Amino acid sequence: MVDATKGGQEPITIKKYANRRLYNTATSSYVTLDHLCQMVKDGVEFAVFDAKSGEDITRSVLTQIIVEEESKGNQNLLPISFLRQLISYYGDNMKQMLLPQYLDMTMKSFGQNQEQIQQYMQDTFGSVFPFGNLEKMGQQNMAMFEQAMQMFSPFSGMTGGKPAAPASAPEPEQERASEGGDQLKDLQKQLDAMQKRLESMEDKSK
Fold this sequence. Notes:
With 206 residues, the chain is an alpha+beta fold. It folds into 3 domains: 1-77; 79-118; 126-205, no CATH class. It has helices spanning 33-41, 58-71, 80-89, 93-125, 139-150, 171-205, and strands at 12-16, 22-24, 29-31, 46-50. A hairpin with a 4-residue loop joins strand 2 (22-24) and strand 3 (29-31). Helix 5 (139-150) packs across helix 6 (171-205). The radius of gyration is 25 Å and the shape is elongated. The chain starts with 11 loop residues before the first strand and ends with a helix. The model is unreliable at 1-6, 130-139 and 151-167 (pLDDT under 50).
């Protein structure tokens, strides 16, 4: 049985007929999987029942929605390795007993923390990487962006956490690199601060 909505209301009843058509009893109209997908995103609770047998088939319909979304190919959320591992757990009584609760707890924790994480990312990178005005970025900002990206590259040639300086460069380039290096240090401090915040948030969720 699907949980009731936060407002205490009963979930909307959706009936599935033999011709695979879905009927929303609340609006007295037929709906599609796309409609149900949007209802999920809007936080509207519903339960799907087989119109003939009365069996609760909500789980299979939600699974079908996931299959439909994954088949679109533009924003896959389930890695192949995860799907393989998940399939391998079927038939293992111990894992079947523990995994659903673990996945449910993990998704709830992610849902509760995602807005806070997004805010941290915006506060940290918003003023450093103005993607909305990318065409207006000057040469100095582009140089700083490239240096920042090197932080995440295993082939960046970094030594002791600092980008390796070019062997020789014209004087203006050296001056610009020096300015970019100062900004890069500020970025590193912001990254460290964000990491500490995320670790603190993770400890609180345990």
